[in-house]
Write a structure and sequence with these properties.
The chain is α/β, with parallel strands linked by helices. The protein has 3 domains: about 290 residues, Glycosidases (TIM Barrel, Alpha-Beta Barrel); about 90 residues, Elongation Factor Tu (Ef-tu), domain 3, CATH 2.40.30.140; about 100 residues, Immunoglobulin-like (Sandwich), CATH 2.60.40. Helices cover about 25% and strands about 20% of the residues. The protein has 12 helices and 24 strands. The protein has an 8-stranded parallel β-barrel with strand order 1-2-5-12-13-14-15-16. Strand 21 and strand 22 form a beta hairpin. Helix 1 runs parallel beside helix 3. The longest helix is centred in the middle third of the chain and has 18 residues. It is elongated and about 90 Å long. It binds calcium ion (CA). Calcium ion binds next to loops.
């Protein structure tokens, strides 16, 4: 049984956080594959599986060798932070047997931890304005030659050198300057516009416009899918990679494998128009994480009740392109201590999760650090999250009605559908004082009782017009679902 992200009320798990202990993670996911499916997940995003420059301590984004999935003695160990290649394959196989789509995390932008220095002609670039003409060419020693001596040509004999890279951030001659363009190269045009041109992020920046590099990365992609068993992608740092290359790479893989290969890109920009430009440039060949929505959650959680909740979905991908939006609350980069730290404060997490799990739009991604906590930081799991995930499976069906009509209290309802018995729900949240709101849940519920599953509020009787007056406590959330008919009768008996 192969699932796709299009399964009704599908849900993804980002199955890692930055500060996991080293070792054993593939085995842990493997053992729990069926349990994850039972929790309602339909897709699992696994962390980067290849050897990083920091070896067994590398979270995976400091990629050294894309062909070493924990199989070769390189960078101080055979295994990666998460385990060995055999454990990775076994983990994916178990996830797929459990009916889950498996997303491989793909880092194509950069390489770190070169094996040899090369003498290269480079030009210094102004890091703040990379579109400006670079400085005079200078001879310098750069870490740009990757021979992978521990792998000895297994799977690919491709040797990476300065011809495969556009730029570096370090030379031995001028260690104080932080950005150099390899002489004769140019940054890709179709990348994010911040700093004039945001092709360069870190390490040795891969020149995806070099035809040999392009062919090698396509060859690697085919190898990876076959070798790992993964059948979908999370694409890292796509705002730093030529959009036309990404479209070409993905379509080549889809053509050659004949598979759908669901893909979601990480385009880290709070501005919807940047995301829309990228989608236009790539022919909308992938979904994107809804970064603007995350930014709104973060702001709402940090402004002590002053945030106007009516704006939560304004300028988000979820409202502009719901079919391409992967919604999330936090991730490994936004968690405390990380580069893009923008953690959604704990008190607002239930509201944020309810909005992405119970609403109709977007494909929600639950963060490991929210589901299981981040023990190294003393961060506890979001206690209401399992209940909200359950409500997504049992209640969040049918027409949606949004009540984003008040700065402090907003809500939504789902009418439910006849083919999911017991479905339908009403949700309210506030970032200030509690209160109530009259909302329509559907005329078929007239006379029926809605009980409060989350939030501890009294039950509500639905009127003849299909509306109920629902309430929420200070700074909280509440979720109501239709009580079974018998319960309604008993309740009515005692409240005559
Ligand atoms: Ca780049």
């Amino acid at each position: 049984m192969t699932q796709t992200h299009k399964e009704l009320n599908g849900m993804m798990l980002q199955a890692f956080q930055w500060e996991l202990p080293s070792g054993g993670h593939w085995n842990l996911i493997h053992k729990n594959a069926r349990m994850l499916r039972r929790l309602g997940f339909t897709a699992i995003w696994l962390p980067p599986a290849y050897k990083g420059s920091a070896g067994a301590n590398d979270v995976g984004y400091g990629v050294y060798d894309l062909y070493d999935l924990g199989e070769f003695d390189q960078k101080g160990s055979v295994a990666t932070k998460y385990g060995t290649a055999a454990e990775y394959r076994a983990c994916i196989s178990a996830l797929r047997r459990a009916g889950l789509l498996v997303l491989a995390d793909v880092v194509l932008n950069h390489r770190l931890g070169a094996d040899e220095l090369e003498h290269v002609s480079v030009r210094p670039v102004n890091p703040e304005n990379r579109a400006a003409a670079p400085g005079e060419a200078m001879e310098a020693d750069c870490y740009t030659r990757f021979t992978f001596p521990g792998r000895k040509g297994r799977y690919s004999r491709f040797v990476w050198d300065h011809r495969c890279f556009t730029g570096v951030d370090y030379t031995t001659q001028d260690p104080s300057h932080s950005l150099f363009l390899v002489d004769g190269k140019r940054w890709a045009d179709d990348v994010d516009a911040e700093h004039g041109n945001f092709d360069y992020l870190m390490g040795a920046d891969v020149d995806v416009q070099n035809p040999e590099v392009k062919q090698e990365l396509i060859r690697w992609g085919i190898w990876y899918l076959k070798n790992s068993g993964a059948d979908a992608f999370r694409l890292d740092a796509v705002k730093h990679i030529s959009a036309s290359f990404l479209a070409e790479w993905l379509s080549a893989l889809r053509r050659k494998t004949g598979k759908e290969l669901f893909a979601v890109g990480e385009y880290w920009n709070y501005d919807l128009s940047a995301l829309e430009t990228f989608l236009a440039r790539t022919g909308s060949c992938m979904s994107l994480f809804d970064v603007p929505l995350h930014a709104h959650f973060n702001e709402a959680s940090r402004s002590g009740g002053a945030y106007d909740l009516r704006n939560l979905f304004a300028g988000t991908l979820t409202d502009a392109r719901p079919e391409l939006s992967v919604t999330f609350v936090d991730n490994h980069d936004t968690q405390p201590g990380q580069a893009l730290e923008s953690w959604v404060d704990g008190w607002f997490k239930p509201a944020a999760y309810a909005l992405i799990l119970l609403g109709r739009s977007g494909f929600p991604c639950v963060f490991w650090g929210d589901l299981y906590g981040i023990p190294s930081r003393g961060i506890k799991a979001v206690s209401q999250l399992p209940a909200l995930m359950r409500l997504r499976r049992t209640g969040a069906f049918g027409e949606e009605h949004r009540y984003f009509d008040d700065a402090d209290i907003v809500g939504l309802t789902r009418e439910g559908t006849a083919n999911v018995p017991g479905s339908g729900l009403a949700f309210l949240c506030t970032n200030a004082r509690g209160g109530e709101k009259r909302m329509y849940v559907g005329s078929r519920f007239a006379g029926q009782v809605f009980r409060c599953d989350v939030g501890g509020r009294p039950p509500v009787v639905i009127g003849r017009d299909g509306c109920g007056v629902f309430s929420v406590a200070d700074g909280g959330i509440s979720v109501y679902t239709p009580a079974p008919k018998l319960k309604t009768l008993i309740w009515r008996f005692f409240h005559r």
